[in-house]
Amino acid sequence: MGKPTGFMDYEREDAEALSVAERIKNYDEFHTPLSKEEQQKQGARCMECGVPFCQSGMQVGGMITGCPLNNLIPEWNDLIYQGCWEQAYNRLRLTNNFPEFTSRVCPALCEKACTCGANGNAVTVRANEYGIVENAYEQGYACAKPPKVRTGKKIAVIGSGPSGLAAADQLNQRGHSVTVYERSDRIGGLLMYGIPNMKLEKDVIERRTEIMQEEGIEFLTEVNVGKDIKVSELLSQYDRVVLACGASNPRDIKVKGRESEGIYFAVDFLKSTTKSLLDTGLKEGSFISAKGKNVMVIGGGDTGNDCVGTSIRHGAKSVLQLEMMPKLPDTRAENNPWPEWPRVCKTDYGQEEAIGVFGSDPRVYQTTVKEFVADEKGKLKSAVLVKLKPEKDKKTGRMMMKEIEGSEYSVDVELVLIAAGFLGSESYVTKAFGVETDGRTNVSTTKDSHRTNVENVFVCGDMHIGQSLVVRAIREGRDVAREVDESLMGYTNL
Ligand code: FAD
Fold it and tell me: What CATH class has 154-248+423-489?
């Protein structure tokens, strides 16, 4: 352990965000990382406590606490304090294929479980991870390291999101020959066409996938498996197939007036901005634009927040964000102690920006939409909203949100973005493969396994566990790789 008193000697210093006024001028990432020297001090704040929950990745209070990848956090905190940056990178890569993604987009479950944070400010684990991986690229040791021996086994991975990429990386490093099929025009899944540029600039994805290509992975874009290529063809060409197609089926809001022009799913909106930004710098104007419009985002989660931030950058006239549930407390409730995931109200970057631009928090709680109203040309012009209150369902005994009679009111709105969650996998893929799904349309497997009911077909990521987090998708990709490898070789060292 580097500095036993580090957590008392140094205050937490994190990467600074640009002011709202500055950062909404473009779609770039907006945090200024700490200098290498300052980051080393932050590493010294790690207490190397007896029980490092930060790396536990276990269920506490029904939610995951600590890193699902079991990243060796105390080890690399110590290594950066000692100035051993390359060793720190090697320890980090041992458990995490893509620290450049997680250090940008992860909600940092590790920091919420950090012992330092039990009674003070947690260690800047995410910023330390960022420092380690960016330094590795700068110094050139984040580079292609192709496997020395090939096994002669062929594997197809369907889907190039974080789970598919992690599975491909692991299996390729093991010496199997891997081809990744992606229906979109660019690699990355929701990393590319979901999470906005402000959180993850897209050359960060390309920088990694170029290395993976150099290491021998073949990427085939614009191939929609189940439509452009037959499943029987794939199964005869490859020894194993890994499905990593995500859970891209959005939950709809089925109320009167839903067919009005101007109502979109969040990911379609976010994708259209990113694609246009990458293709033409937003010059061709084919993206769904919020410019000059009253925007209503339905859903108070992270996807909704990304829609708020993107709408503000477009130049929206106003932004409203609806949340059905009551506002969470600002600090941990007594029944939600450390190291559980804190169920507290988080004001994310998009909401901060709305406060900065419009002067108030865009979120309204315990509210939903009852009706959309269009003008004579079918264009959305307003929405009728209704207030909700929690009430016990008489049949099930479960708490439900019920409408408050007479609480309806109307708001002007020309653009609605539905960010109400995801229902699971898309049926054309699951049907084409003949894999069984559960009630949520996630692909079924036995507990702790990634094997489907179809021989030689495995599944991972959101398609397996439902819409989740990048860090869990990477975990899924690593786990499926281990199982596939074992099924091919009779043992595994992954
Ligand atoms: P995906 O990333 O969904 O990738 C699946 C890929 O499969 C897609 O590229 C798709 O085109 C491809 N595909 C599907 N069917 C076929 C087919 N038949 N043939 C070929 N290709 C196919 N998580 C975080 O941790 N932090 C965040 O900040 C965050 N922000 C988010 C923002 C938004 C708007 C959304 C929607 C999600 C966000 N998430 C975030 C969640 C996270 O992005 C997902 O949990 C993660 O990407 C899932 O990875 P995956 O590989 O399972 O699937």
Answer: alpha beta
Cβ(158) – ligand 1 distance below 6 Å: yes
Ligand 1 centroid to 133 CA: how many Å? 22
* CB neighbour class for 392 (10 Å; exposed up to 12, middle 13-18, buried from 19): exposed
Cα separation of 137 and 58, whole Å? 31
326-331 contact pairs (CB < 8 A, 24+): 326/365, 326/366, 326/390, 327/363, 327/365
Q: Does residue 249 line the site of ligand 1, with CB under 6 A? A: no
Residue 226's closest CA among 428, 90, 35?
428
Could you tell me the fold of the domain covering 6-139? Fumarate Reductase Iron-sulfur Protein; Chain B, domain 2 (1.10.1060)
Task: Pick from 98, 245, 425 the residue to mutate for probing ligand 1's pocket: most ligand atoms within 8 Å of its CB.
Answer: 245
Query: Is there an atom of ligand 1 within 6 Å of 299 CB?
Result: no
Q: Is the CB of 103 under 6 A from ligand 1?
A: no
How many angstroms separate the first and last alpha carbons of the chain?
28
What is the tens place of the pLDDT at every residue in 204-225?
Answer: 999 999 999 999 999 999 999 9
Q: Is the CB of 245 under 6 A from ligand 1?
A: yes
Which CATH code is given to the segment(s) 263-418?
Answer: 3.50.50.60
- Give the residue extent of every domain in the chain: 6-139, 154-248+423-489, 263-418
Distance between CA atoms of 335 and 487, rounded to whole angstroms?
A: 44
Residue 417 has pLDDT above 80, yes or no: yes
In short, whether 190's Cβ falls inside 6 Å of ligand 1 is yes
- Asked if residue 400 lies in contact with residue 393, where contact means CB atoms within 8 angstroms, the answer is yes
Q: Do domains 6-139 and 263-418 have the same CATH topology?
A: no
What is the distance of C-alpha 384 from the center of its chain? 31
Q: Is the CB of 321 under 6 A from ligand 1?
A: no
DSSP state of 34: P
Angle, CA 355 vertex, CA 107 and CA 108 arms, to 5°: 5
Taken in order 250, 234, 189, 484, the sign of the CA dihedral is: positive
State if residue 424 touches ligand 1 by the CB under 6 angstroms criterion.
no
CA atoms within 13 A on the CB side of 20: 15
What is the residue with the minimal CA distance to atom 28 of ligand 1? 105
Tell me the whole-structure pTM to 2 decimals: 0.97
Measured in angstroms, how far is the CA atom of residue 351 from the centroid of ligand 1? 23
Separation of CA 32 and ligand 1 centre (Å): 27
pLDDT in tens, 431-442: 999 999 999 999
pLDDT for 2 beyond 80: no
